[in-house]
């Protein structure tokens, strides 16, 4: 990858991060926030070659707002959607199907770590089966897949190429570096920057406040 291409990729991810942050503060509704974020991701991913790097770059842009997708009839809700889950659906899911159809990639279960992830998944499914209804079990399995198996599989299979993996890890480190001064400010000032968005988003954000936080 040329230096010009790398600069373009970094600029695109930066612009997407800024756009999502602005949309978060300007949208007065959780569903408007989701639609706006989806549009930003759609235009960013169309020109992105390293999908995992884009996922890491945007992962910590905002807190994990969450609301249940309303159902119909006897089903009150389909499944709860939040920001990381939205990223997984829009960015990683397409990559998952492409990776699954690629014969040259290692199939799931061939690696030792795959078996540990599968065991983790099955243990959680066992708890769901033991204590929840059929609808809750189906919802729980879907959420568990989107939150654990999907990111693990896509990221682990992208590790086959050194340069894309390094680029993705750099994106993750940059995202954490941006998050660090925000966390330090919130801790020092006892002021949670995103706390007021909870009311605006209709209670979509659960925050554990620090003592004396505003």
Structural class: mainly alpha
How many DSSP helices? 8
Low-confidence stretches: 208-214
Mean pLDDT: 81
Largest beta sheet: strand ordering: 1-2
| Count of folded domains | 1
Based on CA inertia axes, which overall geometry fits?
Answer: globular
Rg over CA atoms: 19 Å
Main sheet record: 2 strands, antiparallel
What amount of the residues lies in strands? Answer: 5-15%
Characteristic key phrases:
214 residues; two-stranded antiparallel ribbon; 8 helices; 5% strand; disordered C terminus
Topology:
Blueprint: H1 3-26, H2 30-45, H3 51-59, E1 66-70, E2 77-82, H4 83-101, H5 112-131, H6 134-158, H7 162-189, H8 197-200
Helix pairs in contact: 1-2, 2-4, 3-4, 3-7, 4-6, 5-6
Briefly summarize what is shown:
The protein has 214 residues and is mostly helical.
